[in-house]
Structure formats: structure tokens, C-alpha cells
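Hi P.,

Sorry for the delay on this. The queue was packed all week, but I finally got your sequence through. Input first:
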Amino acid sequence: MSETQQTGAPIHVESADHLQELVSTHEIVLVDYYADWCGPCNMLEPTVKEIAAETDAVVAKVDIDELQALAKEEGVRSVPTLQFFANGEPAERVVGVQSKEDLTAIVERLG
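Then the structure:
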């Protein structure tokens, strides 16, 4: 396990290959596609950090401005978009601000 996962903090994704590595090496991954200018993304940030700290999911943060090609390839049309992966496969996707309870329930269901 990576040192970042042990601290329970979200991992800043640096490239498409980095994201693929995270998805393929961890059982449950929550990918948060966001932008710094996005108000709802900023509202969701504390919840995403809590999910990283309190669940078994690895949380990966993808800045859609920094990684435009990746966001387009993944079909991200609005932010925040939250994509869940289970055992390396896409499992569920939600768009917009979500409650911590709803996100935790998805993680538990996938686990």
C-alpha cells in the first residue's frame, strides 16, 4: 500500500497512467473529478476527505483543468463527478454534490 493511502488522504492524480495504477492496485477507488473554480466541488471537498480517512476506499482527485484529456476520455461532462471502481472495473458514477452517507453507502456496498 502506498504511504498516501495509509494516512487516509486523497491522492492527487498526476496522469492517466497514475489513475490506472491506482484503480488496478486497490480494491475500491473513488475518483473525484473536480475543478478549483467549481463551487460545488469545493463544497464536496470536506466530504471527500472524510471518505478517504474513514473508509477502505482510496480517494483519487483528478483536476479536470490539469488533465483535460483524461476527463474527456472518461466522459466527464460536469463537475463534481464521482466515479467508483471496484476490483479495477467501473462500478458506479454520481454527478453533483452528494451526502457523506450516500457515498459511504456506495463504498460499503462495493466492498
